Amino acid sequence: PHAQAAAIAAVPAVQWLDGELALPQPFVLESGASLNEAKLAWQCVGPADAPLIVVLGGISAHRRAVAQDGRGWWESQCGAGKTLDIERYRVLGIDWLGGCDASTGPKAGGAAEFPAISTGDQARALLLLLNRLGVRRVHLVVGASYGGNVAQQLAALLGDRLRHLVLLSAAHKAA
């Protein structure tokens, strides 16, 4: 019993953090257009000092790859004891800029006036977030579909700050 209690005590506490990063004013896009008062919504789950994994899904994904209510978009892979183990790693996700979640996007009915957001724009915003969170090294970036395109851009920006990159069903650019 004593050894079992010690093993349980050795598991770092899983923290569930949600936040919004205010992007530089204005946030200038690769197209030359800009976003005013832009924000990037994020969630990070895992022990505070654990290696960081950035998880980027397709265009319908959001910041919650794993959720306390079980409604994360990648629950089959993220969670306690799973491939992306939130007891061993911190898992960071974002809401896409230009999407319909908590990050800056078009207002209802205003999609025609909202500027196009490139994968490079998403990667630059994510790099600003990583820097603001004080992340010196990223253990892994996993990108699927659109998220894989962003992951490639982020990998180029991170350089040797990134240890591993996994791409799923992603080309180097949109067709």
TrEMBL record:
InterPro entries linked to this entry: AB_hydrolase_1, AB_hydrolase_fold, HAT_MetX-like
Every AB hydrolase-1 domain range: 52-170
Gene3D superfamilies xrefs: alpha/beta hydrolase
This protein's record includes keyword Amino-acid biosynthesis: no
Keywords: Transferase
MF terms in GO: homoserine O-acetyltransferase activity
PANTHER family on file: HOMOSERINE O-ACETYLTRANSFERASE
Record protein name field: AB hydrolase-1 domain-containing protein
Lineage: unclassified sequences, metagenomes, ecological metagenomes
